[in-house]
Amino acid sequence: MDNPRIGEAALARLLDGWCTDARESLHRQLAAALTALISSGELPPGTLLPSERALASTLAVSRGTLVTAYTTLRSLGLLDSRQGSGTRVRGVSQPRLPGSATRLNPLSGAADSSVIDLSGAALPGQDWVADVVGSVSPDDLRRWVRGHGYHPAGLPQLRTAIARHCTEDGLISEPDQVLVTSGSQQALQLIATAMLAPGDEVLVEDPTNWGALDAFRDRGARLRTIPLRDDGVDADVLVRLLRSRRPRLLYLAPTVHNPVGVNLRPAVAKVIAAAVAETGTALIEDLSSVDTLFTGPPPPSMASLAPDAAVLSIGSLSKLFWGGLRVGWIRSTVDFVKQLATYRSSADMGSSVPSQLAALRLLEYVPRARRTRAGQLRAGYEWTSDLLATHLPDWTWVEPDGGASLWVRLPEGNALAVAEAARRGGVLITPGSVFSATDGQLDRVRVSFAAGPDAVLEGVQRLASVWRGRRRLR
Asked: Do 261 and 406 meet the contact criterion of CB atoms below 8 Å apart?
């Protein structure tokens, strides 16, 4: 079997958070972090590591730091270097978890309270949500407690309410077309499990939602990317790939794209919908960010534009109300929902009944919650863009239609190195490669404003200080 090779971007993700002690030398901390990866099996024997020069640039350290760290590991018998063959792992393989367990988790946040976290775009719950959730009484729950509590497709009343919600947004739906999930990530995992076998081809945008990449990779899918321009996906490339490749799945985030924040233009959406219907490719349209729009009402869904196509629409209440609620859904054909419910039964037997009862109440407040969210997010965007324009005037970004972050283009440098330098400067941002199936997007970072104006002000000021410091060192 061929020895694996790991690129500098992928290794930098595994090393996330390696430099935590300002009193300890960088080469010692790096050597310790690499030793931990080798011992855990995340860097198995035979793995070819990046060159000192390439990894040093990505981690924003000197080449000497890398040389010393690699030398330390060679002295411990963990690495083997040969002229012309590079540096390989010699460590003893240990059991390891597959897939996403070895990848950067952007939700991990900052362990040190002094660090400003502008990396995660998860929003806090709205204050009044606690009152609505708390209004679910023992009497409301008692009738369900008398039963077994397992509802793989979801509580019938909630499925009805979600179908009505989808219909009000322009996607005519029946309760039997809805399956309730424990959030949008479980919806993605469930679809991937039900539909994909190792080697199946999936088309994804580049960049795209890191959670979707995890779900597809964990099934052993082959990911083929479609470039995403600042105004949305390249429809010409997408349609050509649909017709020539006939992939198993196409995954799109047409409304408030994660991480870019833009909506797919209506004319482009119609072209893609027609191509999906023509080729028979199953389309996952991820609408879990639709409730973060602040530029207008939701545009028509892809499923409404292609009613006869195999479209699976994913929704969620997390961004509108509160992520801790863990209620999402899949809307598709009646037959496919039945199949998904069967797969679901072997996993967790259904979502929490109390959470579903709370969600049933909260769906009555969607208009109010959307108005509140739109106002908060519009203010956050304007505040953050003004701060970036003032403190980092050579950084540019895509003007979003919604969401809680900015997709920022760096004028120069490697985003992984910038993110690492920023972390040492006390602020977390997410490098663009996290959202890329090819470890690309190295000139982009995501800067979130979900943490609120005070944190954003301090975080941007720290970013500006780090950026000025890097430029002085050139």
From this structure: yes
